[in-house]
Design brief:
13 helices; binds pyridoxal-5'-phosphate; 397 residues; Aspartate Aminotransferase, domain 2; 14% strand
Length: 397
């Protein structure tokens, strides 16, 4: 389809007064109410107008009672998965879910028992740990290695040992990876699937970041690995791509009937197998050819943001930056600058930026910081320059 809509991602739109967590939690989390926030992973870029217009149109109606799920919603999800990720998804594989984290919790409850092991590869998105622990399961953390390019890699030898020793029942994979921005290769996924199948470990693949991938990288959904299909749960959402996390709209895809039934039964225990009216409208509107055009424009904009941010951050002596292959997040190693709480304070008070501290991503994240690049470029680069200047001045203090 011809791209004839242009998106103005440079426009700055204030989020003050909208209850945005990124802004409202600044005082309580960072101790400074006016620090510029580049932490939580939502965008300071607008949801495309065709989605907001569909929401407004429906909101102008005066009744918001119970709603059904139309087949067209499942068809939109199927279309997106096929056209954007080359995955043919059966309509009956799909279950709606309020959020990906909810789906992680349901999967943990459905596929494991209290005391069972759940494998995570740290550093990784914090709720992988919290949800497992809140459900009285045991986190089996297998820290990622760094490959010769400085990118994260799975330690398959350690994983095989972990499987033999601890017999975990579930593995949580972040695909693509937050915070490192790694796009797992097909060969890595095949190796992982073979190991999980041998040891009877079910895989949960969180693919929430999979739409934002930078060429020449290509997202490989776990669903495209034939041998994974009988042993996996794959989750996706419009939250990241369309900046709709507050609308709570996501879904899982489960090809295997038995696993799906366990997931559904567990959802039903808490009556949480649906999304609300606004989520349904946003899902169906976003997962469309218009949505695909918007996504392409967004990825182009974010790629340039990332390129410029990474090249600036590379000028910090003694820091190292992981260039993301996917996601709008940049992962920065600031361990050389002293204890992380001190570095955090300097970033807040000298650079006036709030980043995500690495300990949110598990022990392997200590001393690292995550910078959210989904902001209008001018502000983002100004903040990056302040970080660079603050840290490059470190030797003078
Ligand atoms: C890897 C990953 N999974 C899940 C989420 C949250 O998704 P949801 O809001 O649908 O629970 C995030 C948000 O940052 C994330 O990075």
């Amino acid at each position: 389809m011809e791209n004839n809509v242009s998106y103005d991602f440079d426009r700055e739109i204030s989020r003050l007064g909208t209850g945005a967590e990124k802004y409202e939690a600044r005082k309580s989390l960072f101790g400074k109410a006016d620090v510029e926030p580049f932490w939580v992973a939502d965008m300071d870029l607008p949801t495309p107008a065709f989605v907001t217009e569909a929401l407004i149109k429906r909101m102008n109606h005066s009744m918001f009672g119970y709603t059904t799920v139309q087949d067209s919603l499942y068809a939109a999800i199927q279309w997106w998965q096929q056209s954007q990720h080359g995955v043919q998804v059966g309509a009956d594989w799909i279950r709606l879910s309020p959020s990906v984290v909810t789906s992680i919790a349901i999967a943990v409850q459905a596929m494991t028992r209290p005391g069972d092991g759940v494998v995570v590869f740290s550093p990784v998105y914090g709720p992988f740990f919290f949800v497992t622990e809140h459900n009285q399961r045991k986190v089996r953390d297998e820290p990622l290695l760094r490959d010769h390019n400085g990118q994260y890699a799975i330690d398959f030898d350690a994983l095989a040992k972990c499987f033999k020793t601890h017999q975990p029942r579930l593995l949580l994979l972040c695909n693509p990876h937050n915070p490192g921005g790694r796009v797992w290769r097909e060969s890595e996924l095949r190796q992982l699937v073979a190991l999980c199948n041998t040891h009877n470990v079910t895989m949960f693949s969180d693919e929430i970041h999979c739409d934002i991938v930078y060429a020449p990288n290509r997202h490989v959904s776990l669903l495209t690995i034939e041998d994974a299909r009988d042993n996996c749960i794959v989750a996706h959402s419009i939250g990241k791509t369309f900046n709709t996390s507050g609308l709570n709209a996501s879904w899982v895809m489960i090809p295997n009937k038995e696993i799906r039934q366990r997931f559904v039964n567990t959802q039903e225990l808490s009556h949480c197998g649906s999304v609300n009216l606004t989520g349904k409208i946003a899902l169906e509107t976003a997962l469309s050819p218009e949505g695909a055009e918007y996504k392409q424009a967004l990825v182009t904009y974010l790629h340039e943001n990332i390129r410029q941010v990474v090249s600036r951050l590379h000028t910090i002596e003694n820091a190292s930056v992981m260039r993301p292959e996917a996601t709008f997040l940049t992962w920065i190693d600031l361990r050389a600058f002293g204890p992380w709480p001190t570095v955090m304070k300097r970033l807040i008070h000298e650079a006036n930026v709030a980043l995500s501290g690495g300990t949110f991503f598990g022990p392997a994240g200590q001393g690292w910081f995550r910078l959210n690049c989904a902001h209008p470029r001018k502000n983002l680069l100004a903040a990056t320059d302040r970080i660079v200047n603050t840290l490059n001045g470190a030797g003078l203090r």
